[in-house]
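Take a look at the protein record below with the fold in mind.
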Amino acid sequence: MKGVVLAGGLGSRLYPLTKITNKHLLPIYNKPMIYYPIESLVESGITEILIVTGGYHAGEFLRLLGDGKKLGLKHISYTYQEGEFGIAYALSLAEDFADKHKIIVFLGDNIINENIKKHVDYFESHDYGAMLLLTQVDDPARFGVIEFDENKNIVSIEEKPKIPKSNFIDVGITMYDNEVFDIIRTLKPSARNELEITDAHNIYLKRGRLTYDFLTGFWTDAGTFDSLLKANNLISEREKVVK
């Protein structure tokens, strides 16, 4: 399986911090943010990854990461994302890199405290089209919200709903088969003028090809000032325990 880290976008919610650099290069405690998803992928056995980035500071990723060897990677590729047209659009740029392999996609501002190798191994050994990793949050309206039935089967996934049907969310660490690129080609822009990855997930759901599991340990994104502070605090506390 190959890994894709999505690290584009303008990071407008973190302005003015992002006036001079890409959001994913901001520090989380003692490392650049982008290190954490890469380290999680390497820990799970993924050593060939693609960084999808864009904006004025894209070249800084190459200067920081180089060939990826110091982070445990065998190979790292880079591709440039023109504009902000949604996660599904950014993922579509990884089709050639995937080369018909299964992939795991990691949003570049996701910070976790769990080895996800068991999830990667499960997806690789089963015939699902996509696998979501989920968690509970206090502010689900910022995310793709999961609706379950009484048997904990997913009924629907709704992107940034005004009235969330649960507090379970898709965290943005997702595994796909190669069909995802054909599905993305069928998507239409949403009211936000973006290709929503949630729409692709709902197509997998309707086809009976979607599965999920829950993350354990802590999770946060780092896309707002509050969540950036939370990520720093969580990693700081973890490092103190390790020391």
Remarks:
- The radius of gyration is 17 Å.
- The mean pLDDT is 93.
